[in-house]
Design goal:
The chain is an all-alpha fold and 323 residues long. Helix content is 76%, strand content 0%. The chain has two domains: 122 residues, no CATH class; 168 residues, MetI-like (MetI-like fold, Orthogonal Bundle), CATH 1.10.3720. The protein is built from 13 helices and no strands. Keywords: Cell membrane, Membrane, Transmembrane, Transmembrane helix, Transport.
């Protein structure tokens, strides 16, 4: 197993390098320059000043040379200085990363809490009225755009009812609250972003759990368990569900890129101070060092999630052994 994990980590290196090459190329060939935001709004800046800015940021060099200079810095974990405010890009990302990880971990937990019981119920009660209602609800969740749901929830629960905050991660008086008050304040700010972030995955995960459970419930060992007199509850949760987890692990591994990418939209809509919102602001400002830094971190998190999913295969099914 250790050799397999080490091999996967080594294979991940060229993948991350390839992702950075594509990201850098797309960023370079996109119309406009990072200095446009500085020069376009200042009529006193001359063309000579613009050229000096290009040279200062190294933008006058060929694209392959710019990429090579960036790559040499990244090897020693230096993402460069932000074009926007001159701060180290790595510091800006590290400040926002915990909030994004918290949002994605809670979204993943909510997906499992909702989708697994829903999938099991639909499989056990297949083709009943409850199964059809649940299936319809899940597909509605999958069909509606996340940003539209976010706006509707903000209007209903934030503006009309006033139950939940609609932006940020904590209130202005957070430092003056007690410990329980801080926990409750943080929880209130996370309810809407976590719900919207996980909404579309409810249908996907529940459908895979339902399909996996239906296949397992037809197996001979399940019929043998019924013949031996095991209770229906033990057969479903102790024998069938564990063997139906393999497709779910696959989907969870594939959901990580969607969660990381979706955080760009969710965090921007809710003004959530995470890495996704920082990435959106960096894209709008053409802040190349921050964009590339977030690209590397996102690629690393995605590949790490896929490796963890592969390891969980062997935990869920001892018959699987990696060489």
């Amino acid at each position: 197993m250790y050799k397999y994990i080490l091999k996967r980590l080594l294979y991940s290196i060229p993948i991350i390098v390839g992702i950075t090459v594509i990201t850098f190329a797309v960023m370079f060939f996109t119309p406009g320059k990072p200095t446009d935001a500085i020069t376009d709004f200042n009529t006193k800046i001359t063309s000579e000043s613009k050229e000096r800015l290009y040279q200062l940021y190294g933008l006058d060099k060929p694209v392959y040379e710019q990429y090579w200079n960036w790559f040499k810095r990244v090897i020693v974990f230096d993402f460069g200085q932000s074009f926007k405010d001159g701060q180290p890009a790595s510091e800006k990302i590290i400040q926002r990363l915990p909030a994004t990880i918290l949002l994605n971990v809670l979204s993943m937990l909510l997906m499992l809490i909702v989708a697994v019981p829903a999938g099991v119920y639909s499989a056990v009660k297949k083709y009943t009225a409850g199964d059809r209602v649940l299936t319809s609800f899940m597909f509605i969740c999958f069909s509606v755009p996340a940003f539209w749901v976010a706006l509707m929830l903000m209007i209903v629960f934030g503006l009309w009812l006033g139950w939940l905050p609609i932006s940020g991660i904590v209130s202005f008086n957070f430092d003056r609250l007690s410990l329980l008050g801080k926990v409750w304040d943080l929880s209130k700010h996370l309810i809407l972003p976590v719900f919207v972030s996980s909404l579309a995955s409810f249908a996907v995960l529940s459908r895979y759990v339902r399909s996996g459970m239906l296949d397992v419930l037809k197996q001979d060992y399940i019929k043998a368990a019924y013949a031996k007199g095991f209770s229906r509850k033990d057969i479903i949760f102790k024998h069938a569900l564990k063997n139906a987890l393999l497709p779910l692990i696959t989907i969870i591994g594939l959901s990580i890129p969607a969660l990381v990418g979706g955080s760009f939209i969710i965090e921007t809509v809710f003004s959530y101070p995470g890495m996704g919102r920082l990435g959106f602001e960096a894209i709008m400002a053409r802040d190349y060092p921050v964009i590339m830094g977030i690209g590397v971190i996102s690629a690393f998190l995605t590949l790490a999630g896929n490796i963890v999913a592969d390891v969980l295969y062997s935990v869920a099914d001892p018959r699987i052994r990696y060489k």
